[in-house]
Design brief:
The protein is mainly α. The chain is built from nine helices and two strands; from the N terminus they run ααααααββααα.
Amino acid sequence: MTVTFEATRCAFIDQSHVVESVMADVADLGRDTRLEGWDCGVLAYHMAALSLNLPRLIGSVDDDWPAIDVATWASGTKGFADEVDQMSLALAAKRTHDEIRTRFAEYAVAGRAFVDSASGDLKFGFPAWKVWLPFSEFLLTRVVELTVHGLDLADAAGSERPPAPSAVEVTTQWLDTQIVGRRPADLDGDVAWIEAATARVFHQDERLPVLA
């Protein structure tokens, strides 16, 4: 897969604007989403803390830590996805809806400013694993998260705002590398492909989903 850092940077900035607009469409953060047990407030908190809050997510890296790639990262994070989800639920419960909206807006602005000036050579460290991921690749994972969860939020809000075309392009390019062979012929539409590949909608192809 060849996705340039500049393309990923633009996709993050564009999609962060989109999810901010979708947030404005959500009249009630207590409305349920299609993610079991998550209302819009929990989803918004999760997106803000783990995708938009990039300046605070970048940590120090020890010289002897080895580098990993995005495929290794994606495989490894499956092991503690439930733990992260429970953390989002617990922390969101401690915030009012107004606080979540404020934090979401603040982190979106800060995240865009950081990405606009950041170098792809930065190292994103994982202290628990004592490894690091190039920031250019970590940012790719944040674009995928913002694109998929942006669709989740729009679905709950009844919003017709589509994800940013640049974010759709980056996300589909990555998802296309995660399936053996070509994507199913009836999923030639990129948004339909994203939703089937990430278990938002069921598809009979046994290779799906590739990311849940």
